[in-house]
Amino acid sequence: MKFATFNEFGEIIGRYDSDIHFVIPEHAVNLSDDVFLATRIDKDGIWKLVDGEVVKLPLPAVEPNYPALFAAERFVHEASGISVEGLDIETTRDSQALIASTGLSAILDPEYRCNFKTLNGFIEIGAAQILAIAKAVRAHVQACFDRELTLLRALEAGTYKDEMLSDGWPEASQPGPSPALQ
Q1: Per-residue pLDDT tens for 36-50?
Q2: Residue 79 and residue 42 share a domain
Q3: Of 145, 156, 151, whose CA–CA distance to 166 is shortest?
Q4: What is the pLDDT of residues 106-126, one digit of tens each?
Q5: Are residues 48 and 107 in the same domain?
Q6: What is the C-alpha radius of gyration for the chain, rounded to an integer number of angstroms?
């Protein structure tokens, strides 16, 4: 004979087979062989004890963690890269930090020049171009955060639709040959 025990919420907490188990708890519920097997292998529902009867209930609907989903999508767009003055610029977190520090050097020294690595290779640029890149990267990143905030506000207002997740992000550049490097 087959048995199952349940907690106070009706959830299965133990299964017993009298051919294997010598001691069956007193409060165990007798199950048919088919139901016993189903409680072990069915993955499309939850078996519970409801009003003295063992029944399979549908799995509860799991609501996505929308704020985490929005943040993950923002991060993808944030790091997608941009084109500035014909140069394809990486916008990952590491690149943002390097660009910000290069921008600071350009502010402190208007004659500053450096070999700057674009997605197409190295190019020598001066302070004005460094600042243009830094401003463009910052604007791109801010636009990504602004879009995330818009999605969060739509969620709070109850107006969010799944198709909104892929719309409204700033455009990323498609890396190609840079005219400055040819």
Answers
A1: 999 999 889 999 999
A2: no
A3: 151
A4: 999 999 999 999 999 999 999
A5: no
A6: 30
